[in-house]
Every structure is written in C-alpha cells, then in structure tokens.
Amino acid sequence: MSTYFPKNGEIPRSWFLVDADGKTLGRLATEVARVLMGKHKTCYTPHVQTGDFVVVVNAEKVRLTGTKWTDKIYRHHSMYPGGLKETAARDLVAKHPTRLIEKAVRGMLPKNRIGDRLIRKMKVYAGDHHPHQAQKPEPFPVKLS
Fold it and tell me: What pTM was computed for the model?
C-alpha cells in the first residue's frame, strides 16, 4: 500500500460564500483559513493547494470584542528612521473595510509561497454584492457563531 498524494490538477475546486455581518473576526478568520488550505477535505496535503475559493461579503460589519476597536494596533515600518506607522482597527476599517479580514486570514496561513498563493483564493468585499455569481458560490461548510 502506498499513501495517495493528490496532484494540483486532480483536486475539484469549490466556491464558498461567507457573510461576515456580526461574525467575530478571529473565529471567521480561522474557518476561512481552514477552507483556503483545504483542511476540511479528506485529501488534504500540506505541500499541495487542496483548498477552495472563499468569497467574504459585508466585511465592514465584522465584529471585534471588548475594546479591540481602539486597542488593537496594526503596525507597519517603512525601514527608514522614524518610519513606524500605527493604525487602530477602527481607523483601518474606516479607510479600507476589507483589510481587517485580509490581515487576519493572512496571519493564519503558512508563511511561504503556498501561503502567498492561497491568499489569492480569498475575495473580500465591503458590501453585500460581489462579481462572482457565475461561480455559483455555496454556503459556507461551517456554521459560524
């Protein structure tokens, strides 16, 4: 007997639709990352992209608990002296509503080339409309609380 390793062309891809309205950011991000990596499938293999596509709508209505809207700080440094930029979660959502979810999911994916490819399979939209009707996205496989 030998272990079966799926090849990239053999894996059927599905599209899933997630409504982020009222969902907690961390719980939403873990389940989206799990589906992007393909861990919900029986043919999961770490070195092969076995995951599915995920469309997230209503990103601006995601929920943070406690005082994270003001206390959660996103930092970026330009590598120049004094180049540290800090942005609170509330300001980030006001300026770029989709980035909060993108950053949370990206942090839960592998930090390598596969992670870079997996994040491209996630499409995030601020409102409830998206241009992926032709792919017929199914409801999300996991019930999010």
Answer: 0.91
